[in-house]
Amino acid sequence: MAARDVHPHPAADPTWVAEQRKWSRGWRRIVFPGAFLAYLIQVATVLPKDAHGAALVAGAADLVLFAVGYVLAVPATWMLGDRRYTGLVAAMAVLWLIELPFAHADAFVMGVFVVALLVIRFGERGLVAGAAVAVTAILLPPAVRPWHDTLTTGLSNGTAIAISTTALAMYGFGRVIRGSVALERARAELDRLAAENERARIARDLHDLLGHSLTTISVKAELAHKLTAHDPDAAAREIADVAALTRRALGDVRAAVASYREVTLAGELATGRELLRAAGITGELPPAVELVDDAAQELFGWVVREGLTNVVRHSRARTCRVQVSPASVEILDDGVGGRTGTGNGLAGLAERVAAAGGTLEAGPLQPTGWRLAVHLAGAGTGA
Predict the structure, then answer these.
(1) Calpha distance 219→211 (Å, rounded)
(2) Are 311 and 320 in contact (CB under 8 A)?
(3) Which of these, 89, 113, 130, 114, lies nearest to 39 by C-alpha position?
């Protein structure tokens, strides 16, 4: 059997998962969060005005420790099992409070960073903390007489607005990230379940394929042994039957193993249904594929695999529908209709379709959505 060009389903695509993870590893873990530390320049510039001598040194050291804590806390924010998060955020909150006597109202800029980490991690509960910090930023500076100057009220209101807008932005960002994490975990769970189902299928099929054959072979071999002494011709016939049964069993095993390496329409629909569910997309997929010609089953499986891959990766759709007929398969979604459709996966699929004598159509729908359709000329007509 010739080697097949097998493209992994997105539920088991390590390349795609690696691309999603790389942005949170290595130098990106420091550079991207560190860029926001530029906002602490406001605190650093007012320190010489509000603090002098040892107080200035203490305020500067406190600000540096706060910045280091933030850079370390950001990666820990996404890891729900990382115990460092609580300690780092608590330390940042303490450092922020320590900075208040040195930088006065400007120190509330540090509260923006603390609120952002809380909201990303805790969602709605973090928003409550953000509201409390924003209110404090408005009420506390005017109430502390040594902080009074002409800019205090405006600075307090501006910082409160920054805290509020940051909290709302991080809330939405956190929801997106948590959704991505949940989807990745669902993919991992699908991989595990698929592996378990595969092992169960192999065990069941091997039992069904070989149980009867091996029993028959054993009985005939014993009979041939008994017949060897007084009826050599009959023994030879039994041995010939054993050889034939052995070849047949070996062929059955090879066919079974080959079928696990092949793409099937039924298998891709079953996997795709679970993938859409894990991605939060309502799927409408045919429950049976008997109406599809046998010659088209594998190709249509490739179409469903590539189509649903693109739906999950690119469409941002809410619903997806797969329709099959004896000669065609069609995938429609209600997502972003103007997305590019010339990737390597779709190009490879077009080659498969052309080799089978079919046509492929891919493009946006109106007012929104995307359609991928393949039709095989002559299929389903008895040709």
Answers:
(1) 12
(2) yes
(3) 113
Q: What is the dihedral of CA 66, 67, 68, 72, to 10 degrees?
A: 100
In this model, does residue 149 exceed pLDDT 70? no
**Spatial CA neighbour of 320 closest among 309, 331, 329:** 331
User: What is the pLDDT at residue 333?
Assistant: 94
Q: Which residues contact 361 (CB under 8 A, 6 or more apart)?
A: 371, 372, 373, 374, 375
**Helices 152-227 and 14-21, axial angle in degrees (round to 10):** 160
One-letter amino acid for residue 316 of the chain: R
DSSP string, 220-238: HHHHHHHHTTT-HHHHHHH
With a CB cutoff of 8 Å and minimum separation 6, the contacts of 232 are none
Q: Which two tokens stand for residue 366?
A: 């109106």
Q: Where are the alpha helices (DSSP H) in the chain?
A: 14-21, 28-35, 41-50, 54-78, 84-103, 108-122, 124-143, 152-227, 232-261, 265-278, 294-310, 344-355
In contact, 215 and 245? CB cutoff 8 Å: no
Residue 376: helix, strand or coil by DSSP? strand
Residue 19, both tokens: 């691309």
Give the dihedral of Cα atoms 234, 235, 239, 245; nearest 10 deg. 50
**What is each CA distance from 167 to 68, 171, 172, 179, in whole angstroms?**
21, 6, 9, 18
Contact 115, 133 (CB under 8 A): yes
Separation of alpha carbons 86 and 131, rounded Å: 20
CA angle 177, 179, 183 (to 5 degrees): 115
Give the span between the Cα atoms of 309 and 11, in whole angstroms. 9
Is residue 337 over pLDDT 70?
no
Which two three-digit tokens encode residue 317? 């759709």
What does the DSSP 8-state code read for residue 7? P
**Is the pTM higher than 0.90?**
no
Mean pLDDT of the chain: 78
Q: What is the dihedral of CA 262, 267, 268, 270, to 10 degrees?
A: -170
